[in-house]
Amino acid sequence: MSRYDIVIKNGLIFDGTRTPRYRGDIGICNGVIAATGHIPAEQGQRVIDADGLHVAPGFIDLHTHYDAQLFWDPYCTLSGWHGVTSAVIGNCGFGFAPVAPEMRERAMLSMTRVEAIPFESMKLGMPWDWTSFPEYLDSVERAPKAINILPYVPVAPMLISVLGLDDAKAGKKPTDAQHAELRRLFETALDAGGCGWSAQRLMPDGPSAVQLDHDGTPMVTDVMHDETCEVLAEVLGRRNAGFMQMTISSGSYQHDRQHMERLATISGRPLLWNVVQAYDHKPEVHRGGLKWLASCRERGIRVYGQGLTTDAGFTFTFEDWNLWDDRPSWREATLGTVAERLAKLSDPERRPALRSQVPLTVTGPIANIVITGPRTEETKRWLDHTVGQVAEALGKHPVDAMLDIAVADGLATEFFAAPPNVSMVHLKEIVDDPYVLFGVSDGGAHTKFLTAGRYPTETLAKLVREHNMLSLEDAHWRLSALPAMLAGFTGRGVLTIGAPADIVIYDYEKLEVLPSEIVHDLPGGEWRRVQRAKGYRYVLVNGAVTIENDRETNTFSGRLLRGGGASPSLASAA
Predict the structure, then answer these.
(1) Does position 360 have pLDDT exceeding 90, yes or no?
(2) What does the angle CA 45 – CA 51 – CA 53 come to, to the nearest 5 degrees?
(3) CA distances from 429 to 61, 280, 425 (A)
(4) Which residue intervals of the chain bear CATH 2.30.40.10?
(5) DSSP 8-class letter at 569
(6) CA–CA–CA angle 370, 373, 376 (5° rounding)
(7) Which helix (H) or strand (E) holds 127?
(8) 224 in helix, strand or coil?
(9) How many helices (H) and strands (E) are present in the chain, helices listed first?
(10) CA nearest 146: which of 90, 88, 77, 95?
């Protein structure tokens, strides 16, 4: 009789702890790692030959927005294709519980601009068989899952539930009684399995105002009060459990940094700051952030940074584009239906304001944007030209050159905006900080613009194999063990005896991010932009093979990890 359900033989093992790689075997029983070292093949009910392959812990993605998508996509792609075996949902304070039935449509509308998730897909794809946060988690638990899910408790729905939408949008400070109700809701959500709380706090009228509500107004957490955050931090401190995620500008805003330090001090829990991003035209931004994070570590304050380590740019059309909301004139011009946008972007009266507020912060100089998909005979001659080249050829301002092409194509022109962080020198400065996490995949969000869910594959293929920025041992620690430690994923992120068997087995030399493609696989036939992976021979989640030779096996062994934990005895149940 076989001793193990699966034996992985002859792999080069990176166990996630930063100890040196070793060649050996792994025995899996009841969804957990039962033995490592030398294991006879005959002891396995199934044997996976990993000769010539790398064996490592599954990757852990701490920044996703799969709160809706997980109901129609058990693999939470792109993440599931790129070796992610566990993901945290509910980032930035956004989510769908608690939400009263009459507020469901409003909750979905909020996500159409701030995270660019199609409304009809959410409406058709979510069961909406919940009102409270515990009921939402019950629904997530019932849904088939091919990866593990750990939920933040997003702050925005709680604020709206307690204050009402109008007062929450107005930034009204909660009364003592309302703060008590927020505590109660938060405690109930934590008891049900929440891993902490999350919030976006971006300057509503400043250079970081790029993630706004569907009507162009700030999200409710943007205008919430410091005291409210402190109330929630106190709850974590009293429970001595959980962690916090805050999306705050990369700029040098002293108040924000002092506020995050205070929250980490009050709670004694980790706080994950998003995002550490390099801007090649102003490297002082990421350098200042790294210096501040180092200062926090020296003082024993548990603030960590999550770095934008992918060079995934933005491919967009003005039918949907919304990431220039930091410029008021562009925000106004890109609100509304496609017909309304077309009328505004073609309006000569608006052009002076658009020219005077040229976007820069999210995508770099506008002149560097490339026309990758002209749609008419009139515009086809500009294929693969930059906006700057078109402007020079026509003697126009870059804004007019770009918008004239977009208007001629009925706003269907496809543009590509490279990210503002293409310098490998600046990227290495972020990578060299051993306590900055990789990622910010935004998985499930910006579905027509962004494919940053590829970051684990990109880390190994580009940062390690191509540029030798760090060792594989360090890379696997940063991709798995470090995020597991911060988020409280009990026993995950490492390949040690007793750990849940979340494992990636890949061909290092063949690991590759495949080209971008458009697929119509969202509910209602909506499309999205994706990039698949190549080189993952096997992915195991809780001891079951969910990916084989880069393709899904339709095995749904993922679990809802309430509070980060899961019973090992149940881990392999599919």
Answers:
(1) no
(2) 110
(3) 21, 12, 7
(4) 4-57+498-558
(5) G
(6) 125
(7) none
(8) coil
(9) 18, 25
(10) 77
Cβ atoms 341, 322 nearer than 8 A: no
Chain segment 41-57, per-residue pLDDT in tens: 999 999 999 999 999 99
Q: How confident is the model at residue 252 (pLDDT cuts 50, 70, 90)?
A: very low
Please list, residue by residue across 242-273, b when 16 or more beta carbons sit within 10 angstroms of its beta carbon and e when fewer do.
bbbbbbbbbbeeeebbebbbbbbbbbebbbbb
User: Are 79 and 86 in contact, with CB atoms under 8 Å apart?
Assistant: no
- Given the candidates 2.30.40.10, 3.40.50.1470, 3.30.465.10, 3.40.50.170, the CATH classification of the domain at 4-57+498-558 is 2.30.40.10
Task: Please give the structure tokens belonging to residue 238.
Answer: 């009293």
Contact 131, 101 (CB under 8 A): yes
Distance in angstroms (rounded) separating the CA atoms of residues 506 and 502: 13
**pLDDT exceeds cutoff 80 at 359:** no
Question: Residue 218 CB: number of other CB atoms within 10 A?
Answer: 22
Residue 341: CA atoms inside 13 Å, Cβ hemisphere, count?
20
Lateral strand order in the sheet of 314-316: 314-316, 414-417, 370-373
Which residues are CB-contacts of 298 (< 8 A; sequence separation ≥ 6)?
Answer: none
Tens of pLDDT, residue by residue over 83-136, are: 999 999 999 999 999 999 999 999 999 999 999 999 999 999 999 999 999 999
Question: What gap in Å lies between CA 204 and CA 308, rounded to an integer?
Answer: 22
Q: Are 556 and 74 in contact (CB under 8 A)?
A: yes
Domain with CATH 3.20.20.140 in the chain: 60-312+420-487
Helix (H, G, I), strand (E, B) or coil at 134: helix
Q: Dump the DSSP string for 258-282.
A: HHHHHHHHHH-S-EEEEEE---TT-
- 387-394 helix and 398-408 helix, angle to the nearest 10 degrees: 100
pLDDT value at 570 more than 50 = no
Tokens of 195: 């891993």
Statement: the pTM of the whole predicted model exceeds 0.85: yes
pLDDT per position as a tens digit, 491-542: 999 999 999 999 999 999 999 999 999 999 999 999 999 999 999 999 999 9
Q: Which phi and psi (to 5°) does residue 205 adopt? A: -120, 20
- CA separation (Å) from 512 to 11, 91, 418? 20, 28, 20
Expressed in percent and rounded to 5, the helix, strand and coil fractions of the chain are 40, 20, 40
Question: Does 363 have pLDDT greater than 80?
Answer: no
- What class does CATH assign to 60-312+420-487? alpha beta
Structure tokens that stand for 492 in this block:
């995950």
The burial of 373, by beta-carbon neighbours within 10 Å (0-12 exposed, 13-18 middle, 19 or more buried), is given as middle
| pLDDT tens-digit map of 139-151 | 999 999 999 999 9
